[in-house]
Protein: ArsR family transcriptional regulator
Organism: Flaviflexus salsibiostraticola
Amino acid sequence: MHAENDMSDVSLSSPYVELAAEVLGLLSDPTRIRIILALESDEELSVGALAEIVGKKPSGVSQHLARLRMARMVTTRQEGTSVMYRLVDEHAAALVVEAIRQAEHAVAIGQIPPHHHTPAPIEPEARS
């Protein structure tokens, strides 16, 4: 198990359980999930670019970004008259990716979810 996926140091009595619930609630909006994925892919984007990518109006995307910024998931940088947004760290993207993988499992109905790689069949060696 990878150290970043090790849950042995997280307990039921962690003082961060309530805050974690708030983070998950904040990420429960599809537009915010798309914003996180877009920022994970492109590293830094303006409101206009994000609005185009997620298919929403810039004013709505700006409101979502404000909430993500208040939660310290995104940060900004001024570039001329534009404000550029980026993820603070990799954790928000990791949460979103894991949630999508869980969703794939939920609808897989006994099949192998797309994120699981099936090993290629081993072909027997050609005999001379």
The mean pLDDT is 86.
